Amino acid sequence: AFIQTFGQMSEILFMLLLPLFLRRFGIKWIMLGGMLAWALRYFAFGHYERAILGLVPGGMWLVYVGIVLHGVCYDFFFVSGQIYTDEKAGPRVRAAAQGFLNLVTNGLGYLIGAVVVAGRVVDAYTLPGGGHDWFHIWHIAGYIALAIFVLFAVLFRPRTAAPPTADAMRAVA
Q1: What global pTM score does this model have?
Q2: How many Cα neighbours within 13 Å face the side chain of 24?
Q3: pLDDT value, residue 52
Q4: For residues 6 and 67, is the Cβ–Cβ distance under 8 A?
Q5: pLDDT for res 151
Q6: 10 Cβ partners below 8 Å, 6+ apart?
Q7: What span, in angstroms and rounded, lies between the C-alpha atoms of 26 and 107?
Q8: What is the pLDDT of residue 3?
Q9: How many CA atoms lie within 13 A of 158 on its CB side?
Q10: Cβ neighbours of residue 171 under 8 Å, at least 6 residues apart?
Q11: Are the C-beta atoms of 17 and 11 separated by less than 8 Å?
């Protein structure tokens, strides 16, 4: 349980760093960083499985890497996505947009991932003795995360805000 708290500590650290990174790199690169961290996390957990079986020396460090990556994964993908949605939606539909984002990512996304994809992958890698080939299970998740990373990199084109007009600047002043 203590080791798992490193994930929460990481989340707090990256939540504090998120505004700095958003200003420096922008929303697309931050979200891509979060997605890449998901893939790396899955690969780390998969290789840890090999370390437990003695196929790779050492390996506990991979658990630490996977747990610490939680902060990057969550903050750089979910939190920055909520920030982006909040900025783009506008005051009239902001609550509905946040609700829809939550439904898609934390509702339908988890449901499809857990029931449709993960269940089939775990079943496909059931060993004859009754265990599971976790190395391959984690790697399938990592490759799916990498595929989503590539799709997002190609398809997501955030519009940058236009510089304020002189009238807008006078209205603020």
Answers
A1: 0.81
A2: 6
A3: 62
A4: yes
A5: 97
A6: 67, 68, 69, 70, 71, 72
A7: 26
A8: 81
A9: 20
A10: none
A11: no
Q: Are 149 and 35 in contact (CB under 8 A)?
A: yes
**Cβ atoms of residues 31 and 79 within 8 Å:** no
Yes or no: say if 75 and 14 are a contact pair by the CB < 8 Å rule.
Answer: yes
- The structure tokens 């449901």 sit at 111
**pLDDT at position 106, please?**
85
pLDDT along the chain (173 residues), means of 10: 88 94 95 96 84 65 89 93 89 90 88 88 91 90 95 89 48 42
